[in-house]
Amino acid sequence: MKIFEENSGYFIGDVVYEQYSVLGPRWQENLQLVYVYSGAMRVRVEDCQYALAAGEMTLLAPRHRERFWFGLDGPTRHGWCGVAKPNLQPWSLQRLKRRPMVLPFSQDMRSLAAMAYAVDPRSGVLQERYRDSLIRAMLYGFLIAAGCMDEPRQPLHAAVERAQNSMEQRLHEPLTLAGLAGVAGTSPAHLIQLFKRDTGSTPKQYLRRLRIAAAERLLVSTGLSVGEIGYRVGFANPQHFSRVFSQHCGVSPGEWRRRAWAVGAAVER
Questions:
Q1: Could you give the C-alpha distances from 139 to 9, 63, 86, 174, in angstroms and in order?
Q2: Cα 226 versus chain centre, distance
Q3: What phi and psi, each to the nearest 5 degrees, are found at residue 13?
């Protein structure tokens, strides 16, 4: 999904406000990320008021009136970045406006802000695009953390839910499309159609992903042999399990386990 057009106007800056400073009221036209380096601030968006401490950030949606109060205990340094013409989906904009979101201004976000602020867009087209990409990364990062990027999903068809539940409960059994369709209360062809519509995959593909995910967990958390794990997640023989696992994960089951255990040992040290 494309939220920000490439030719939108991006901006970034920071400022220090003295104790008891006030900004606004002002009409917000842009999508603007605001973050506090030191001090504190209060923000009022329409009739909703909330606070930001040092190390916190919020995202201001377009098309509302806002006001700021800075530093009851001293100066406040805060920064901002944003985009002038965001191509926000209506449902995403509604989520942003429904409730203000205050999130930690992480070290990763600080690094992105520092890099973007250090770039002089007047130096050339490539520098401008580089700075814009860093600002986009910050905006996307906030939207993802705030849950505003996930499109609303339609409820699964009852037949799909019944088939999925059957797969999860009988993962070790030799399941067939006809058997799953019978449990779901529909024909095999219709079940495939419903699965593709609701999950983007066929029942066979969905079942395979379930089995591989279960195998990954068992490889990491148990000492069972590769062959035994294959049987437990529904593969007829170890050779078939190893072949499918390697195709899906890019390495053999044994290599997957070796790498996972090596990482775990390094973390414990």
A1: 13, 17, 10, 47
A2: 33
A3: -175, 175
Q: Which of 90-104, 106-120, 182-196, 213-227 has the highest mean pLDDT?
A: 182-196
**Interatomic CA distance for residues 92 and 3, integer angstroms:** 10
d(CA 59, CA 207): 40
Taking alpha carbons only, the member of 7, 11, 1 closest to residue 88 is 1
- pLDDT, tens digit, 9 for 90 and up, residues 44-65: 887 788 888 999 999 998 878 8
Q: Torsion angle, CA of 173/177/181/184, rounded to 10 degrees?
A: 50
Indicate the angle between helix axes 203-221 and 188-199, nearest 10 degrees.
60
Query: For tokens 């209060």, what's the residue?
Result: 42
Where on the phi/psi map is residue 20: left (φ > 0), alpha (ψ -120 to 50), or beta? left
Kindly state the helix (H) or strand (E) to which residue 216 belongs, with its residue range. Answer: helix 203-221
- The per-residue pLDDT for range 126-172, each reduced to its tens digit, is 888 888 889 989 988 888 887 665 555 567 899 999 999 999 899 99
Q: How far is CA 268 from CA 217, 221, 223, 257, 264, in A?
A: 19, 15, 18, 16, 6
pLDDT in tens, 12-21: 999 999 998 9
Residue whose structure tokens are 């087209």: 125
Answer whether 0.90 is exceeded by the pTM.
no
Whole-angstrom distance, CA of residue 32 vs CA of residue 43:
13
Residue 86 is given by DSSP the state: B
User: Of the candidates 152, 169, 183, 214, which has an alpha carbon nearest to the alpha carbon of residue 1?
Assistant: 152
The structure tokens listed for 108 are 């990763």
